Amino acid sequence: NWTMEEFIGKEIARIRDICGPKGRVIGAVSGGVDSTVAAKLMHEAIGDRFHAIMVDNGVLRMNEAEQVHEMLKKNLGVNLTIVDASELFLSRLEGVEDPERKRKIIGNTFINVFEEQATLIESAAENEEKQGDGSEDSKKGHVEWLLQGTLYPDVIESISFKGPSATIKTHHNVGGLLKDMKLKLIEPLRELFKDEVRALGRLLSIPATLVQRHPFPGPGLAIRILGAVTREQVKILQQADSIYIEEIRKAGLYNDISQAFAVLLPVKAVGVMGDQRTYEQVIALRAVQSEDFMTADWYVFPPEILKRISSRITNEVAGINRVTYDISSKPPATVEWL
Ligand code: XMP
To answer: Ligand 1, closest atom to CA 338?
Structure first.
């Protein structure tokens, strides 16, 4: 039995010990709870020798890369690089409608981009070392470790279960880094449950809004755009989703809901604007309450909140003339539509 304060002290000491005085660690961050808490912990332990990498895959939510920059780099002081790879991701996703193909493309492209960054960081460290005088002091230290924000339930799952949910974690599958770059895994959260990670985050001064954030899938908005993914479709969904979440927060309901998001349907419906007939796309709103996301109940909103959200989306988002609310529970529906 340990307190969370003891855990922090013990884990920081362990990280310092295994990394040595010069070793560097790289890790992907998404702006989510786990990667942010893991990054902050690494930063406390080894400062700028921890390199956080955020990959902008072109299917993030509105202003998400900027927000991660603000939080991790400006507020928490983490050594962060944001890579805008949206062009590459969107070109590989062109014309793809099948959800599992979207997941695979995004997972593989993520690995390509992340590995390239890891190589860049390592060669920068080598160059600095070459410019030094060869003394022990001027040696810069190599990238030796890969940070993963693995939690205890993931540890259990990967031991006992190799079913379909293995594909959910494709974005963690950075095998080349482990094999070719010979990186070793460092997993500071591997003994913790989600609520313990949140408690740890609070102790590490990570703001409550981040610690309480709803989960967001690795493949991002690509699995919430039901047809092919284009920049235009991403923009429409980003706008609708941002209005939806903003109104949920304003109504004080965010923490009452386990996950809420908008989905862009690949159909067109008839509407009317002034004396003009319109023919535009449909947004579906999803909100669920759930303990573990294995089962979930659809969330019962006060009607006036839905009314305000619908009116704002149809008025403010060009290309949308209709909003529906998803009243399906899991099972038989899933939380995501794809
Ligand atoms: P489903 O749709 O399976 O969602 O009921 C359960 C939870 O898992 C998330 N989810 C994903 N997370 N990559 C992720 O990182 C994925 O491909 C993925 N698919 C679903 C979903 O958002 C929900 O929290």
So the answer is: 2
